[in-house]
Specification:
This is ROK family protein. The chain has helices spanning about 5-15, 65-80, 115-125, 135-145, 205, 210-225, 235-245, 250-270, 285-300, 320-330; strands at about 25-35, 35-45, 50-55, 85-95, 95-100, 105, 130-135, 155-160, 160-170, 170, 275-280, 310-315. The protein is an alpha/beta fold and about 350 residues long. It has 2 domains: about 15-140, Nucleotidyltransferase, domain 5 (2-Layer Sandwich); about 150-315, ATPase, nucleotide binding domain (Nucleotidyltransferase, domain 5), CATH 3.30.420. It binds zinc ion.
């Protein structure tokens, strides 16, 4: 019996949302594999992060390394569960191309035997384990509990590269070869700067942190200005600082970044017409600097029907990959999570 009106309202909400009390819940585990750490969250089917933690793992290649990682992940989930709670599905975000058959096709930044890790996690949890590309996972996380505002979005992640995730009807578009959403390799400058993919003029070469450094060095060369000191070829932070302080070369470099993004996103809008674009990744906090040029170029280039599509900054930070992989797992396991449950 509820003692107060507030208790009664909470009870009603729990009933409506289908929330079970601690100890009787079917929960999700969302895992986000990075270069040196594995982040793990225990998540309710309503998208609440019950607990999250991380383990250090340099490599998950040998059977011993894989087994140790799986046990460490299980220990985090067990510590956060109330007695009687069950794990219903496990999602696994990885930095690489995941094929429609859940195979890791390309993972340049990590030593990982994905097949072995999936099998080991199935063993220790006793439920389905569903891998997903990490940018796709972040897209799903933002759709479910973050900056999304409908059942579709295009997520753009700005780091040392440019990645993306395309979600339509609440499901991430993987594509025939697992390469859907590789928006960093949209050509924005025919015969432009040579990209790591072997072609010229990809978005990534103008709008990633490496791209911003290249934009800046070009501008300094043009004007003859002495560049600010950069620690490495992807060290864009001092350029954003210089842009804030009014350096014309830095302002032009950041403007070039914004325009490249606007151009690419206008192209994407013609194909996907998402409910929103969400900008995440390490450079997204500089949106106040590159956003105006991005918006200006986007509106110039896009079809009129999509001119007012919201372009917003991601809200979930590090949680996006964990929440999104949990959501992906729930979808794949046929659990009844709903798109867009943000209250
Ligand atoms: Zn490329």
């Amino acid at each position: 019996m509820a003692d107060t009106l507030a208790d009664a309202m909470r009870a009603t909400r729990a009933e409506v949302m289908g929330e079970a009390p601690a100890g009787q819940r079917d929960l999700l585990v969302g895992i986000d594999v990075g270069g040196t750490t594995v982040k793990v969250a225990l998540v309710s089917q309503e998208g609440e992060v019950i607990a999250n933690d991380a383990v250090r793992t340099e490599s998950m290649k040998t059977p011993e390394e894989v087994a140790a990682a799986a046990q460490a992940i299980k220990a985090i989930a067990d510590a956060a569960k109330a007695e009687g709670d069950r794990v219903a599905a496990v999602g696994l975000a990885v930095p690489g191309v995941v094929s429609p058959d859940d195979e890791l096709l390309l993972s340049p930044n990590i030593t990982l035997d994905l097949g072995a890790l999936v099998e080991k996690l199935k063993d220790v949890f006793g439920v389905g384990v569903y891998p997903v590309n990490d940018a796709n996972a972040a897209a799903l996380g933002e759709l479910w509990q973050g900056a999304g505002s409908g059942d579709s979005l295009v997520f753009v992640t700005l780091g040392t590269g440019v990645g993306g995730g395309v979600v339509v009807g609440g499901k991430v578009i993987v594509g025939g070869k697992g390469s859907a959403g590789e928006i960093g390799h949209l050509t924005i400058e025919p015969d432009g700067r040579l990209c790591g993919c072997g072609r010229g003029g990809c978005l990534e070469m103008y709008a990633s942190s490496r791209g911003v450094v290249l934009n800046y060095r070009d501008e300094c060369e043009k004007s003859g200005a002495e560049p600010v000191e950069l620690e490495h070829d992807a060290h864009a932070l001092p350029i954003f600082d210089a842009a804030r302080n009014g350096s014309p070369e830095a302002v032009a470099a950041v403007d070039r970044m914004g325009r490249a993004l606007g151009q690419a996103m206008a192209t994407i809008a013609c194909v996907v017409d998402p409910a929103a674009f969400v900008i995440g990744g390490g450079m997204s906090p500089a949106f106040d600097l590159f956003g105006p040029a991005l918006m200006d170029e986007y509106r110039k280039d896009v079809i009129s029907a999509c001119a007012d599509t919201p372009i917003v900054v991601a809200e979930l930070g590090n949680l996006a990959g964990m929440l999104g992989s949990a959501y992906h797992a729930a979808n794949r396991a046929g659990l009844a999570v709903k798109v867009w449950q943000k209250s």
